[in-house]
Write the structure tokens for this entry.
Amino acid sequence: MGGSEVTFHQWGIAAGAVLNHHPFGFFADRGDAVIGLVEIIRVKEPGQPVDARDCPPVGQEITAAVLGAVDLQRRVHLSIRPSDRKAANGPPAPAPQR
């Protein structure tokens, strides 16, 4: 694979509420025993500048493309990038509230 982009198998759409923010992204509560992780690089399209202000606020409901399987810490990897969500047949992501 060339470059730093990693390709995941997409398994559909997951919904949840933003739990908290971290420098590397944010976590979302899916309403089950699995927590969703959206890494900061999965908030905007490749090549677009992104920072913590681009993440949805805590408590906001989101829908995201499922990118990867649950890891040992019971997390599933998610993306709110429009292209990933479109590929997973989901509705457009809501704009972050400021």
Summary: The chain is about 5% helix and 35% strand. The helical segments are 82-87.
